[in-house]
UniProtKB/TrEMBL annotation, chains A, E:
It comes from Marivivens niveibacter. The keyword Signal does not apply. The keyword Translocase applies. Pfam families: ABC_tran. Keywords: ATP-binding, Cell membrane, Membrane, Nucleotide-binding, Translocase, Transport. This is Phosphonate ABC transporter ATP-binding protein. GO terms for cellular component: membrane. One of its GO terms (molecular function) is ATP binding. Residues 2-245 form the ABC transporter domain. It comes from the Bacteria. InterPro entries: AAA+_ATPase, ABC_transporter-like_ATP-bd, ABC_transporter-like_CS, ABC_transpr_PhnC, MetN_ABC_transporter-like, P-loop_NTPase.
UniProtKB/TrEMBL annotation, chain B:
Its main location: membrane. Belongs to the binding-protein-dependent transport system permease family. The lineage of its organism: Bacteria, Pseudomonadati, Pseudomonadota, Alphaproteobacteria, Rhodobacterales. Residues 241-425 form the ABC transmembrane type-1 domain. It is found in: Cell membrane. This is Phosphonate ABC transporter, permease protein PhnE. The chain crosses the membrane at residues 21-42, 245-267, 352-372, 378-395, 407-428.
TrEMBL record, chain C:
Keywords: Cell membrane, Membrane, Transmembrane, Transmembrane helix, Transport. The chain crosses the membrane at residues 29-49, 97-117, 256-274. SUPFAM superfamilies: MetI-like. It is a multi-pass membrane protein. CDD domains: TM_PBP2. It is found in: Cell membrane. It comes from Marivivens niveibacter. NCBIfam families: PhnE (TIGR01097). This is Phosphonate ABC transporter, permease protein PhnE. Its main location: membrane. The lineage of its organism: Bacteria, Pseudomonadati, Pseudomonadota, Alphaproteobacteria, Rhodobacterales.
Length: 269, 437, 291, 282, 269
């Protein structure tokens, strides 16, 4: 299905992503881990074509993605939804409108400029919101929602695109543990029930282990690990995070119990 | 801390306070020096000498009172009664104020014992309590009187003219005519001029009383006569206010509509071509720098006097101002929202519509509405230059230097108009953006 | 409605859908109406203005450049005299700037007191807050030209009436902006000073002013910019300075257009100069706040 | 060639409000005669009307002689003078009057040396143009440069302002217009001084005349040259016969007693044009 | 010395302080305890005359305080210094100036405007700062100091007033345990060495017990306890805090060891 081949991105001297190779044969839930600056976001942004690759190629179902331009590129973006750490919603617009932005690519510019969407789309948007458990929030402004709810709106927008792939760039990094769990579970459900491919950048090991079928580890732009969650031992994790022997997994954890433990530890420190 | 250290700290603190004192003294001193310079440059001391407080008193008393002239033309012997001495305020034939009496000898009672009598053969008697009776005779070009040589300061006299000013009224006597001005509080004829049948009729009677003018219904007639009042010209005033607001409205909104697309060209985020960006910005700076005043002058040649010229002058200047602030707002937009919208495959226009516009609209709108209010004030001045609106009426009323009650009326209206626009723009802002952002 | 969703049992998707659709319909209707009203206002407003103007918009459009062309061509012919003329009108320019500067200075002091006296938590006489607010509203609402013309009548011509007129308006305008800032001031230090027995003026001087000074200065500079324009335009209607010279030069017409051009240049240069300088300083002032 | 509306400009400065009212009868007649809507415009100063005539946004106006000269000098083709007002004595002229306060001790221009002198509007004939030519001829050594013979030379902005400024002592002496007939105490029979007296603005006992100019021709009623010939003819006839048909209206339009209007041509104003050219230069 | 008699303060319906009676015969260090909203701050603010009493009177050395107006009131305030929880310094001004504000009552506004403090006062300020151990900070801006240092500056300002009474409204509530100890010790020293009366609102029992000669307990605006620290049993404390038998004294403690224990407990909860 998806083939990433020697994909490279350079910002000036800095190589953010360095000849990454990933091959995915069937819809999988993939977690990408790595410490800050490892190149995770850059990789996803290239897949969504928010930024251009410096070298290498991305192929999806035989179609070359990296060379798409203009309408073809936008068409690809509509098939490849993206979820951001900061949700990237339009805060002053209501929830349903934000979800409907997922259909922008399919609708004529003129109609959408005046916020004219077909009734069927509106109904579908509300159904998706219902599926994510936030249908009651439909008429509210996005900015009035809690972080977890906003992220679910972003997921709803992604689902509205009816995409083949959902890319999620640290979707739970700005959420508290409770909300993080809800959001990750939603992504997992979407993957399982709709059979969509999900690629999520995650900054904690245990989330990756718990929700993903496959984990990719990045370090300094290079892919240094690619395997099942089981293969991801503490040693490998140390390697990915470039940490010494003082590395404790709990430090990257957001799971609720772990968190409490670490907070208590900190308080005693 | 050791004794040495603390002494050093003390020393340091002393220096600190010396410095602070120096600054504290320096700033007021600079300001004082500047104000002293201004005092001489503006010749403030000379101003105090030149200031005419009599004018101020006239202005203040005239603005809330009116006077009725009783005039005798010494050649024809004819006597006329007119509010403010204006033709429009003349009493209809056969009518006169009730403080005037007599046929052969016209007795004018100014109140508080001040009495003026127009005697036959152009003689006049003025009776003022506490002062000997003044007798004046007008002959041809000269006036003769029994006034002594040294006069109190409220009487001015020469062989050609005598002027008497008392708190009850004013009397001027020349060879050609004799005039008495009697002052009353209030704006006379504000509702109806003397030739209207509704003058002096109570509101209740107009609303519910029997028909006064057989040809018209009371209300319609009263409204018509009031609207077309020749003294106060309510119709013209209303039009002038509308014109002023119109200038502000057209100018502000037009400028906003032109500036918005141009602002995209001037914003770094949206306009990658440096040259184009620079050119747009210089254009904004230029039209703003030239200033509404000069634009008014330039446009007056092309479009002539009137509200459109004023509106265009505001429009051009504000295009520059809005262009600048709008492009600043555009440069501060949050990239996240744009990216969120782009990631769905939205087309460029859609990206602007949903990624950019919702973010900048509150900023732009509150700017525009703020300017709507302040432009109402500008339009008043610009109108005075281009010849339109309430500003022109005000300047001209002031230039006549006598219709102070009209000036006061216009001033009140202008203040109300500006306050109304202030309220309106605040209300719209709250409606459209929400009270606090 | 949002209350109902909060408290009531979870609504079915259908009811949410239909109520949202109804909301969308309503919103479309309102925004459509608002747009319509706006378009009608603009169109009819333009029509009325065009009608009441001596020259029509479309008739006049092509001769928009006539006057500047006349002025510029004559100025170009006599370009050698321009520097001399600029020198000749330089004192008038200084007068205009002085009017603006003094008016801003006095207005800022007035605005300062009005704002402190009209801000909740700071006012010396809390019961008089509405009074001071109304005073500043009225001062803000009076256009400068009104006061200037009346004062010219009493005081005679010259810079002082214009200066007073602008100062009054400035005080009102700044009072509003200042009190918005003062409302957000932190009152802790004021209370701290109060507990030592400080007088009202000491509390304001030491507790409030240091906090608000950067914003106040920035607003004052902005006002100075505006006041230079105001002072020029008031000169045009009778007060002194550059506006007065401009009006005369223009009235003379051809033959003296070089003088008009010189004044244009001075005025334009001054406005742009102060605009740039003040916006640079204002940025610096408000930046310092962020830290 | 058709016109859709007819626009009359009124010289501002002197209570244009009342002038607007005075011209209302004129509007009525014009609308009847031409069959198009007639509008009145009262720009803030002389220059406003001049610019309107030059820009083609005003069709007819009654100008001062100097304003006509200004228009002519900027564009000789723009307007043509058609009529001039006739005074009660049959003359078509008036005077520029120099005056000062009695208590200032100024008796003549000789006493004005070093004092502040005030003109009216720069486009005014009697308030600027003529005095600026004739006063220097009064004796050697007088120029109108500020700070030369006079201590300062100012523009007050208009006749009314000059009178008030002198009366208040803002300036020591000034010039304004009057017909020079009748009594000084009344402010003469007509003119700016008379109006000020009528308005109760000044007491002529406190003012005295210090200078008087030669006769100045009344300003012409002008029509824009580009108007269709029939419109010009209609309007000329209408104004010409106004006094005969409606003396009341003529009184308002002419701002005082008049014997009506008589035809005039550019030739009458050639000297004024030359004067203006010499003073302002072109 | 100080006599508070039936002092009452009502905010609308709410009675914040209800007929409080306190008599103090000699300079004492008094701690006032009570839970949030008990009326402690309101009481102190009335004594300092920052707010007016609704009823009752305060008498100090025979002088009626509650009825003072204008200059007389400010004079009283200068004799009765106040220290706040949030320090209430002028953050943008240097430390010495802040301390010198203690002399404002003696100086005219004009003198203040031009910073005309006598040199003797400046030196005295530095000596006070030295006594409190923060003379080095003298030239810094107040906002650049740590909380504990700022509170000591506030105490220095109070001392600069040379007051008969020092009122302290929860002086250590925003401080960490280390700094709290330093600040309380300073207050105690001032009391002992200078013989000034100190009244401090405290939100922890153990601080009151440790530093005060006398403890007053308030509840719902009324004084419900007035005695020596020894008389303050856990039962009485439960009464003051209106707590059930689950009341643990440690919950109100800030002493260093106790705190760590309770924080850890909370983290595990
Ligand atoms: N627009 C850009 N210009 C220059 N350098 C960039 C840009 N975007 C990213 N980089 C650099 O590329 C490298 C990879 O960045 P990237 O955002 O992909 O890391 P990441 O793994 O997502 O980290 P994080 O967990 O902090 O989001 C970083 O060193 C970053 O500084
Ligand atoms: N300005 C005010 N207006 C209205 N009510 C007030 C005001 N100040 C205090 N109160 C009320 O008075 C009561 C006592 O408040 P006070 O601040 O004195 O309590 P406290 O014991 O100091 O509590 P804390 O420990 O929270 O500071 C509270 O119920 C409070 O809500
Ligand atoms: Mg990232
Ligand atoms: Mg408290």
């Amino acid at each position: 299905m998806l083939k990433i081949d020697a994909l490279t991105k350079r910002f000036g001297d800095k190589t953010a992503v360095d000849a990454a190779n990933i091959t995915v044969d069937q819809p999988t839930m993939i977690g990408i881990i790595g410490r800050s600056g490892a190149g995770k976001s850059t990789l996803l942004r290239m897949v969504n074509r928010l930024s251009d690759a410096t070298e290498g190629s991305i192929t999806f179902e035989g179609e070359e993605i990296t060379s798409l331009r203009g309408a073809a590129r936008r068409d690809w973006q509509s098939r490849c939804a993206m979820i951001f750490q900061q949700f990237n919603l339009v805060p002053r617009m209501d929830v349903v409108s934000n979800v409907l932005h997922g259909t922008l690519n399919k609708r004529s510019t003129l109609a959408t400029l005046f916020n004219l969407y077909p009734q069927a789309d509106i109904h579908k948007a509300i159904e998706i919101l219902d599926r994510l458990g936030i249908a009651e929030q439909a008429p509210k402004r996005a900015e009035a929602l809690s972080g977890g709810q906003q992220q679910r709106v972003a997921i709803a927008r992604a689902l509205m695109q009816d995409p083949k792939i959902i890319l999620a760039d640290e979707p739970i990094a700005s959420l508290d543990p409770m909300n993080a769990q809800v959001v990750m579970q939603s992504l997992r459900d979407i993957h399982e029930q709709d059979g969509r491919m999900v690629i999520a950048n995650l900054h904690t090991l245990d989330t990756a282990r718990r929700y993903c079928d496959r984990v990719i580890g990045m370090r300094d732009g290079r892919i240094v690990f690619d395997g099942t969650p089981e293969q991801l031992t503490t040693g490998v994790a140390r390697d990915i995070y470039g940490a010494g022997s003082d590395f404790s997994e709990a430090a990257t954890s957001t799971e609720i119990e772990t968190l409490d433990r670490s907070a208590a530890e900190k308080a005693y420190a | 801390m050791s004794a040495v250290d603390i002494n050093m700290t003390k020393q340091y603190a002393d220096d600190l306070f010396k410095r602070k004192r120096l600054i504290a003294f320096a700033i007021p001193t600079v300001i004082l020096v500047y104000l002293t310079y201004i005092f001489f440059a503006f010749d403030v001391s000379g101003l105090a000498a030149r200031a005419n407080w009599q004018n101020a008193v006239t202005l203040a008393s005239d603005s809330w009172s009116h006077k009725i002239h009783v005039t005798r033309d010494n050649r024809s012997g004819e006597i006329s009664y007119a509010v403010e001495g204006e033709r429009k305020g003349e009493y209809p034939q056969g009518e006169r104020p009730d403080w005037v009496s007599g046929e052969e000898i016209i007795t004018i009672d100014l109140g508080a014992g001040h009495i003026v009598r127009y005697l036959p053969e152009n003689r006049t008697e003025v009776e003022i309590p506490g002062y000997p009776l003044i007798e004046v005779q007008a002959e041809g070009r000269t006036v003769t009187s029994n006034l002594p040589a040294d006069l109190p300061d409220w009487i001015s006299a020469s062989s050609r003219r005598i002027g008497i000013t008392t708190p009850e009224g004013r009397i001027t006597l020349t060879g050609a005519r004799t005039e008495v001005f009697n002052y009353f509080p209030g704006w006379e004829l504000f509702w109806f001029t003397l030739d209207s049948p509704y003058h002096g009729v109570g509101l209740g009677q107009i609303l519910f009383g029997e028909q006064i003018d057989p040809t018209r219904s009371n209300i319609a007639g009263a409204v018509f006569d009031w609207w077309n009042n020749k003294m106060w010209r309510h119709k013209d005033v209303a039009w002038a206010i509308c014109e002023t607001i119109l200038m502000a409205f057209l100018g502000t909104m037009g400028a906003a509509m032109i500036a918005l697309p141009l602002a995209f060209l001037a914003a770094k985020r949206f306009s990658p071509i440096m040259l184009l960006r620079g050119a747009t910005r210089r254009l904004f700076d230029f039209v703003r720098g030239v200033d509404a005043l000069i634009w008014t002058v330039v446009l007056a040649r092309a479009f002539g006097p009137g509200p459109l010229t004023g509106a265009l002058a505001i429009l051009i200047t504000d295009t520059g101002t809005f262009g600048k602030t709008f492009s600043e707002a555009l440069e501060n937009v949050d990239q996240k929202q744009i990216e969120g919208v782009s990631s769905t495959g939205a087309k460029p226009l859609q990206r602007y519509r949903f990624g950019v516009i919702p973010q900048v609209v509150p900023v732009l709108l509150s700017q525009v509405l703020y300017f709507l209010e302040s432009n109402t004030r500008s339009a008043t001045i610009i109108g005075a230059i281009t010849g339109g609106g309430i500003g022109l009426m005000l300047t001209q009323a002031i230039q006549t230097q006598q219709n102070w009650e009209e000036v006061a009326y216009y001033i009140v209206l202008i203040i109300l108009m500006v306050m109304f626009m202030d309220w309106l723009s605040g209300w719209l802002r709250a409606k459209l953006i929400g009270t606090k952002d | 409605m949002s209350d109902a969703t909060m408290t009531g049992p979870a609504q079915s998707v259908e009811t949410i859908q239909s109520s949202y659709l109804a909301q969308v319909q309503r919103r479309r209707l309102y925004s459509g109406l608002a747009l319509l009203v706006f378009v009608v206002l603009m169109a009819s407003g333009f029509h009325i203005a065009d009608d009441r103007n001596a020259g029509g918009f479309w008739d006049g459009l092509h001769q928009i450049g006539d006057y500047p062309a006349d002025v510029l061509s004559e100025a170009w012919e006599k370009r050698t005299e321009l520097p001399g003329l600029i020198g000749k009108y330089y004192p008038a320019l200084i007068e205009t700037i002085n009017i603006a500067a003094v008016a801003t200075l006095i207005g800022a002091v007035g605005g300062l007191f009005l704002s402190l006296l009209g801000t909740r938590g700071l006012a010396k006489w809390p019961r008089l807050i509405p009074l001071f607010r109304r005073i500043s509203d009225v001062m803000r609402a009076v256009p400068e030209i009104v006061i200037a013309l009346v004062l010219i009548f009493v005081l005679g011509g010259g810079p002082v009436p214009a200066m007073i007129a602008i100062a009054i308006h400035t005080a009102g305008a700044l009072a509003k902006m200042f009190s918005e800032v003062a409302e957000n001031a932190d009152l802790k230090s004021v209370e701290g000073l109060a507990s030592t027995g400080a007088t009202w003026s000491q509390r304001m001087l030491l507790g409030v002013l240091p906090q608000v000074a950067p914003n106040y200065l920035s607003y004052t500079l902005l006002r100075f910019e505006i006041n230079i324009r105001a002072s020029a335009i008031l000169g045009f209607v009778g007060a002194g300075g550059l506006g007065y010279e401009l009006r005369n030069a223009m009235a003379w017409g051809p033959g003296r257009f070089d003088e008009a051009a010189a004044i244009f240049i001075l005025l334009f240069g001054t406005i742009v100069f102060f605009d740039q300088v003040s916006s640079r300083y204002r940025n610096r002032l408000t930046e310092g706040q962020g830290q | 060639q058709e016109i859709t509306e007819f626009r009359i400009g009124i010289l501002g400065g002197e209570n244009a409000q009342d002038r607007m009212n005075n011209y209302e009868c004129m509007v009525k007649y014009t609308t009847e005669a031409l069959g198009v809507e007639t509008k009145l415009f009262a720009p803030a100063d002389y220059n406003g009307v001049i610019q309107g005539l030059l820009g083609g946004t005003i069709d007819m106006a009654w100008l001062g002689a100097s304003s006509y000269a200004a228009t002519y000098l900027q564009d000789p083709e723009a307007v043509e003078p058609v009529l001039v007002k006739v005074n009660l004595d049959g003359s078509i002229g008036y005077h520029s009057i120099g005056f000062a306060r009695v208590d200032s001790g100024i008796q003549s221009l000789d006493d004005m040396e070093g004092k502040v002198f005030g003109f009216g509007d720069p486009n005014s004939t009697s308030g600027y143009l003529i005095p600026s030519i004739e006063i220097p001829q009064y004796k050697d050594g007088i120029t109108m440069d500020s700070g030369d013979y006079f201590g300062e030379v100012k523009f007050t902005g208009g006749h009314e302002q000059t009178i008030v400024a002198v009366y208040n002592g803002d300036i020591d002496g000034g010039v304004t217009w009057a017909d020079g007939q009748g009594n000084w105490e009344d402010g003469y029979n007509s003119g700016a001084l008379r109006r000020a007296v009528d308005a109760g603005l000044v007491d002529m006992n406190e003012l005295q005349q210090i200078w008087i100019s030669n006769v100045i021709p009344e300003g012409p009623v002008v029509l824009r040259s580009a108007l269709p010939a029939d419109v010009k003819a209609t309007m000329t006839q209408l104004v010409d016969e106004l006094y005969e048909n409606d003396p009341e209206c003529a009184y308002g339009v002419a701002a005082g007693d008049t014997l009506g209007f008589q035809p005039v041509t550019h030739a009458t104003y050639e000297s004024i044009v030359a004067a203006r050219q010499s003073v302002i230069g072109n």
